[in-house]
Amino acid sequence: MQAPDSGYGLWLLAAINTAFFIFFAWSFYKPLTRWDWRGFGMFSAFVVALFAEMYGFPLTLYVLGGWLSANYPQVNWLSHDAGHLLEMWFGWRANPHFGPFHMASFVLIGGGFWLLSAAWPVLYRAQREGRMARDGVYARMRHPQYVAFVLVLTGFLLQWPTLLTLASYPVLVWAYARLARREEKDCLGRFGDEYVRYMQQVPAFIPRRRRGPAPSQGEVR
Asked: N or C: more exposed end of the chain, with fewer CB within 10 A?
């Protein structure tokens, strides 16, 4: 299933893209605690698996090659563009980089990195000052950093789904939710009733439609 012009076997390109996105995420996230490093490590593993198939070895196309060729004979599954499986399955015959799923992936990935960039300064200041992070995006949700990672992973999944990333995605979402709960146990131990009130006022992952009044500076500190 590999042709000279297939666009695979480009391991240097895979390594460059992997390093770029991992460094890009790190520049926004800058993990400090053990929970931060675990969350970032899981994201990095997903990115490695993604770009290894996108530019290196197309494992998914090899495994599904017979079924894909039989059911979609009009698609050249030897081509690199065929790795955009959702565009191929739903009959998008123009450039897949301008397909609906690919464009939606840009929105999700961009939104995820924006959320990371908005959450990190708030969390960093709070950690340095030994207080809770309650302002900025933390006034809308308690775990914006994990929501951001899930948005980015979802975007990558829409853009280039593979068997490995499809299998790991629900595991990563579950792991992020578990890390969030562990973080909350730590915060309850440190801040007690103050964090209990915060949990009652602010949802964990999905912000409410209407935002209540922002806490005053005195309340934040």
From this structure: C
Domain ranges of the chain: 11-201
pLDDT in tens, 38-59: 888 999 999 999 999 999 998 9
- Report the C-alpha gap between 201 and 197 in whole angstroms: 6
**Beta carbons of 104 and 111 less than 8 angstroms apart:** no
Tokens of residue 184, six digits:
């909350």
Residue among 190, 188, 152 nearest 173 (CA):
152
Low-confidence ranges of the chain (pLDDT < 50): 1-5, 212-221
CB atoms within 10 A of CB 101: 20
How many residues belong to the chain?
A: 221
CA distance 143 to 28: 15
Q: What is the pTM of this model?
A: 0.85
